[in-house]
Write a structure and sequence with these properties.
Number of strands: 9
Strand order of the largest sheet: 1-2-5-7-6-8-9
Number of domains: 2
Shape: globular
Low-confidence stretches: 4-47
Radius of gyration: 23 Å
Order of helices and strands: HHHEEEEEHEEHEE
Strand content: 15-25%
Distance between the termini: 86 Å
């Protein structure tokens, strides 16, 4: 009889261990299409990143046929301010385009997405960014266009509690970035507070 208890204990432990489930990996499609949880995850390799289900997620999904997406590692000026959420991604085109010297290149766009707890924090971050805006950290005056502006092409959208920015390379201008920008604006809406468009080396234009 004394041998029965150890054997029963081992059997009980064995079945208890078998009942433990391994952590579930949420794919990009499951995250964006099937869940509404703000804490589900998605990492870069198998396309799985820890982000909430937001307009930005849906925008990423809308571009999946044309672009591969990877985390953007470089620091942005807006990283220094008190955002609530931040996502930075590089969009790599699946189709190459011609650059200025006729070589074929893979077009790349870096997209920065920030949310803030209120409009005051959004404005504070935006106004501070204008003090060091663009590739060479130039000061930009509110609502003042600039003809010559040393910078790569950029698009910046400022909403009540959201800032979305896109940067390209000059040699990738032949890609259809207008469609990319139109999709971004359609997802976030045209009720932005400010819109800044910058061409390669200028001009810098404030749009309404």
């Amino acid at each position: 009889m004394k041998r029965i208890y150890p054997i029963a204990f081992i059997v009980l432990v064995f079945f208890s261990c078998k009942e433990e489930k391994e952590p579930e990996i949420i794919t990009f499609e499951e995250l964006v299409g099937d869940t509404a949880s703000p804490t589900e995850s998605l990492d870069s390799a198998g396309f799985n990143v820890r982000v909430p289900q937001t307009n930005f997620d849906f925008f990423v999904r809308s571009q999946m046929e044309l672009y591969d997406t990877f985390p953007h590692k470089k620091i942005h000026v807006l990283d220094r301010f008190g955002y609530s959420q931040q996502t930075k991604l590089d969009f790599l085109g699946k189709n190459k385009v011609q650059s200025g010297n006729s070589a074929l290149v893979t077009p790349v766009a870096s997209v920065y997405y920030y949310t803030f707890s209120d409009s005051v924090k959004t404005k504070s971050a935006f106004y501070n960014w204008l003090d060091c805006y663009g590739k060479d950290c130039n000061e930009v005056k509110l609502n003042q266009d600039v003809e010559l502006f040393k910078s790569e092409p950029m698009l910046t959208l400022i909403y009540d509690t959201t800032i979305v920015a896109v940067e390209y390379l000059c040699e990738h201008e032949k890609n259809n970035w207008k469609s990319f920008e139109d999709s971004l604006t359609a997802r976030f809406g045209s009720d932005y507070k400010y819109r800044i468009e910058v061409g390669c080396g200028g001009p810098l234009r404030w749009k309404k």
